[in-house]
Amino acid sequence: MTKETIITPYYSFQHILREFAKGLGTKKLAGKKIDDACKKTEISPFHLDTLKKELIHEPLTKYVNIHFADHILKQFEFICECYLNLYKAIPLDGANADESKKILDKYFFTFAVVELCTESIDGMGLSAREIANSDKTLMTLVLEQFEKSSEWQEFYQKSSDSQKERIRAWTSQSAAELPEISSIAAFGEKSELGNSWGTYKARLITARLWDYFFDRSGYTDLNLVKQLLANECLEELAKCLIESLTKGAVRFEPTAELALRASNLLALRKVKSKHAKQQSLGLLNELKDKLSTIDTRKETTYYYHWMMARYQLHSGNLEDAIDEYTLAFEQVIYRQGENAERIIREALIAACRSPKPKKSFINRLRRMAVLMKIDFMPSGVDKNEFKAKPEEIESWEIAAYSAYFDSFFSKDSFFPDATYPSEPHKSSGPWIVVEDSYRLDLVKPDKMFSVGLIDGMSKKMPQLTYFSMMDEDDAVAQLLDAGANVNKLSSSNESAILLAVQSLQVNLLPLNSMKDQSFKLISEKTHNKSVLDTVTNKRKLSPLGCAVQTGRIDIVEKLIDMGATVDRRHDVGNETPLFTVIALISQHLKRPQNQAFNEWMKYSEIGLQTARAYSAGLLPHDLKQLGENISNQQQDEMLKQMQAHCTSLIKGNVCKYSTADNLREIAKLLISRGASPIAKHNTGMLGYTPLMLAIELNEAELVKFMLDSKKSEIDLRDTCVDSRNQQRIGMLRLMHFWQSRDVYNVFTKRFGKDFFNIMP
User: Fold this and answer.
1) Do 395 and 499 fall into the same domain?
2) Number of domains in the chain
């Protein structure tokens, strides 16, 4: 990372968050964290999400209610989406950074504040323009409206003199300070069903936000609100930014033709003549000389580094190309959105092709790609359970991006006589195993096999793990007698016990042997807890997670007795074993399929992540290409028929080798051994719990068992969020939607017929 400070014309997302935290009055709750984050251009999406929670959702939930917190966070995300679209649509390479930020301050933040406050303002029967023309603070208008409420009047009459003075001060135009959010929260009563205090506090906080920006910040413009609608404000913003760009671009006219000619010579996937190398290098040297004179603030120099990266790459100098891509990346972000996307994509693929990938640079690229909505963070197991720092890119993903190098930077597009970078990774692509290729070695019981064909994916496996996978019971028994270590893992984190369990899994296609001899042999040996809790690199498989999918309670109980963590998350969807086994019950139930939801899930984050993990390298890892590929597949009628047939086969096997009652008993066992019925899961519904899933399936007996469990406190007000529309849904609404009458009866018998007054 360069130590040079680069001034960008666009603000970072963390800067926007900090400004709104100031308006809400929550900045001091994580002041140092957000200030430190704003000192840097780059930020981890994990860290940004944490800051959003600490500065928006958690305090607003605490001080008002979760519905207001959801609304403000949703509006903030919408504002960030608008900002991202602006960043991608209007390039500012060459524009004066200070002038551009003044334009953003004036127009974008004015638009953003109005957008954030609109719903609350509408609820008061006002418009943003009416407020702007009133010559009053919004706090004054809000309190004037409260005076019409009998509930507020009753509160005001009972208030102390100091409370009345504080309210009066809030309406004073000369007030030195805006009200603290904690002071607003302390007024009146807690937000509850049946009172108006949630509305009161939400409007007071909205007023604080409005007044901070339009009375205190010094950079928004209330006159724009008087004159323009929100969309017109954005249009004016775009016009002003383009004018700034046009004015700044005059300085760089001497470099424009050089840059264009170099770009044409260095185009991707284009066959290059034997003279192209010398010609492009000459153009780049000339471009560098001119930029060194006229671009002292690095406003367009990223383009030189980008083209030089391509030159070095097509010359066969991969490491030099990565160094140039690093400089191009650092100088393009928050400057030119469209080119930033292209540079990130090229740099990520090139950096992953290196024999010794620079993980720190790849992580930086991944972070920005996620913020720009062109990639996802790794899926599956929550790293915070076992690691202090979440992983931003995994080794198998590096291999997958490297495999994409061949089509993205085609060999025939390299300069003549250039050395094409060979594939250094062998952990991507289809894994093809030929039976009888490996001989049992009892002299070296922990011997590692290199498993897989030479031209495909290969992995290192202890021979015990290999023969467990191949259902060679005799070989497993001999190796154990010879002292083979059951705690040794493959290079993909597979253990012998995991593969023995998978031999019994009922929902695999094709099925394995369904024999339990290897499992019985291996499970008699003492296992390290870390091995029992290990998940595989790509598909995030765990022994207990697979065990619940055998439908056999004895297998599950044995693993728990051996020391497996009962709530250890697994699978791409980051599920607990309890959630997994309840979901498997649905295969035994006759219930209509929600085709629209299933179709939406294919293109959701979890759907695309699953496709990445299970495609065996046959689908592109690049998110844009992956989505297009899946969309094209859906047009293939034969493929759709094959998918439907496979789904039918899996359902048939589940029904043949397991029963709903056995799966219910497994769920009860997990709960009795400490599994949480209220563990949150982010599937199509965010925050979905095993209890909610049981409600959906109308599993009354299981729901009753959960309610009887003393190990988890069931909150009747618990909710989940529909990720399609961000609506928050309570358990009562789930019962009504899925017509779960048996579950409804369980709740009414337990809590009385008035329990729906408690549940949202």
Assistant:
1) no
2) 3
Same domain, 371 and 454: no
Strand order across the beta sheet in which 719-722 lies: 681-682, 685-688, 719-722, 727-730
Encode pLDDT of 461-514 as tens digits. 999 999 999 999 999 999 999 999 999 999 999 999 999 999 999 999 999 999
CA distances 197 to 157, 168, 194, Å, are 16, 19, 9
Q: Whole-angstrom Cα distance, residue 523 to residue 500? A: 9
Which residue carries 């939406």 as its tokens?
A: 600
pLDDT digits (tens, 9 = 90+) for 295-330: 999 999 999 999 999 999 999 999 999 999 999 999
77 & 185 share domain: yes
Residue 2 has pLDDT above 80, yes or no: no
The model carries a pTM of 0.90
In 38-115, at which residue ranges do the beta strands (DSSP E only) sit?
none
547 and 652 inside one domain: yes
Residue 47 tokens read as: 């860290």
pLDDT for 758 equals: 64
Mean model confidence pLDDT for the chain: 92
- DSSP label at 329? H
* pLDDT over 90 (residue 548): yes
Phi-psi region of 512 (alpha: psi -120 to 50; beta: other; left: phi over 0): beta
Least-confidence region, from 118-122, 392-396, 541-545, 648-652: 392-396
pLDDT at 714: 86
The burial class, CB within 10 Å (0-12 / 13-18 / 19+), for 593 is exposed
Q: Mean of the pLDDT values across residues 642-652? A: 92
Cα distance between residue 549 and residue 397, in whole Å: 27
pLDDT 10s digits, 649-700 = 999 999 999 999 999 999 999 999 999 999 999 988 999 999 999 999 999 9
Give strand pairing partners of 570.
575
pLDDT for residue 426 is more than 80: no
Q: Is the same domain home to 201 and 115?
A: yes
- Count of CA atoms in the C-beta half-sphere (13 A) of 210: 28
Residue 697: predicted pLDDT = 96
The pLDDT of 47-74, averaged and rounded, is 96
Surface-to-core class of residue 221, CB atoms within 10 Å of its CB (0-12 exposed, 13-18 middle, 19+ buried): middle
How far apart (Å, rounded) are the C-alpha atoms in residues 111 and 79? 9
Burial letters 502-515, b for 16+ CB under 10 A, else e? bbbbbbeeebbeee
Instruction: Indicate whether 386 pLDDT > 50.
Output: no
Has residue 455 got a pLDDT over 70?
Answer: no
Query: Mean pLDDT over residues 273-283, rounded?
Result: 95
The CA distances from residue 714 to 204, 497, 679, 759, in Å, are 32, 34, 11, 12
The boundaries of the domain holding residue 323 are 266-413
Residues 59 and 207 in one domain: yes
Q: Residue 578: what pLDDT?
A: 98
Give the burial string for 158-177 (b: 16+ CB within 10 Å, else e).
Answer: eeeeebeeebeebeeeeeee
User: Residue 541: which CATH number?
Assistant: 1.25.40.20
In a domain, 261, yes or no: no
Quickly tell me which residue has 């068992």 as its tokens. Answer: 705
| DSSP structure string for 620-638 | -SSHHHHHHHHHHHTT-HH
Question: What are the CA-CA distances from residue 702 to residues 278, 663, 693, 743 (Å)?
Answer: 73, 10, 10, 9
Three-class secondary structure of residue 666 per DSSP = helix
Max CA separation in the chain (angstroms):
90
User: How many Å separate Cα 707 from the centre of its chain?
Assistant: 32
Shared domain check, 437 and 407: no
C-beta of residue 128 within 8 angstroms of C-beta of residue 114: yes
Q: What is the spatial distance between Cα 54 and Cα 712, in angstroms, rounded to a whole number?
A: 25
Please give the backbone phi and psi of residue 97, each rounded to the nearest 5 degrees, phi first: -65, -45
Q: How far is CA 110 from CA 209, 230, 244, 335, in A?
A: 12, 9, 19, 21
